[in-house]
Amino acid sequence: MDKAPLTEHLGELRNRIFISLGVVIVAFGICFNYSEQIFSILTSPIHNTIHISLNNPYITFTPNENSDLNLVFLAPAEAVWMHIKISFISAFIVSSPVIFFEIWRFIAPGLLDREKKYALPFVFTTTVLFLIGSLFCFIIILPFAMNFLLTYKTENLQPMLSVGKYVDFCLKFILAFGAIFELPVLTVFLTRMGIVTPAFLAKNRKYAVLIAFILAALLTPTPDAFNQSLMAIPIIILYEVGIWTSRILDRKKKPEAEDAERETKQDLE
């Protein structure tokens, strides 16, 4: 395990942040050039309803009663800011492998040599889970939520959505689900570091459920219980996945610890 003064750690952190920002800026320039196409994709949850079937095609999108709904902008700069937000979030998602890799490079010096071999699995797993969470939100959650919110007791109401409010709603949901899907990685990391154990996590499951609904209330862009439940349920499921994965890795950790202890004894002899 490497030891370095605080100033060196801060310098290393600065370098990792600068590299990540550089990649995000380059990706932003590319995404901004295609922001209109990205925006067209982002509006699909309004106009389409998802249908899941056990037969091929398993997932289909059909136009719903909001298919003629058009977004409006209520301020002169709202449309411009919308394109900037879309481009920035898209750039962040595209750059996520580099960002996770830089995070690993920052924490790697504080790990043991046998723990550094998890660099590739860490980067791959965090990236894949973040993308799966974002896609899960966009393909499953957003169409379902938008169809429910725009049709629930609105027989005498005409929806008129601001493009800025709609984009904020979608991007907050997508980023929140991407972050939530990192929960198994966080759980495994805490168990590998010995901070918690799978038994402790299982024993305090009821508190995890409560925290899941509190987090959902904080992360969802709307205060209604419906959207909070859409987010809380995946958190609870991912918590259980984290416990299950931690138990598997905990069984593998014991032989590794015994090997490390034998190596230490051999070095002392």
Helix residue percentage: over 70%
What proportion of the residues form beta strands (DSSP E)? under 5%
Radius of gyration: 22 Å
| Strand line-up of the largest beta sheet | 1-2
The count of strands amounts to 2
> How many independent structural domains?
2
Shape: globular
Reading the helices and strands in chain order gives: HHHEEHHHHHHHH
What do these coordinates show?
This protein has about 270 residues and is mostly helical. The protein has two domains: about 1-155, no CATH class; about 180-265, no CATH class. Helix content is about 70%, strand content about 5%. The protein has eleven helices and two strands. Strands 1-2 form a two-stranded antiparallel sheet. α1 (about 5-35) packs antiparallel against α5. The chain is globular and about 60 Å long. It starts with 5 loop residues before the first helix and ends with a helix. The model has no long low-confidence stretch (mean pLDDT about 80).
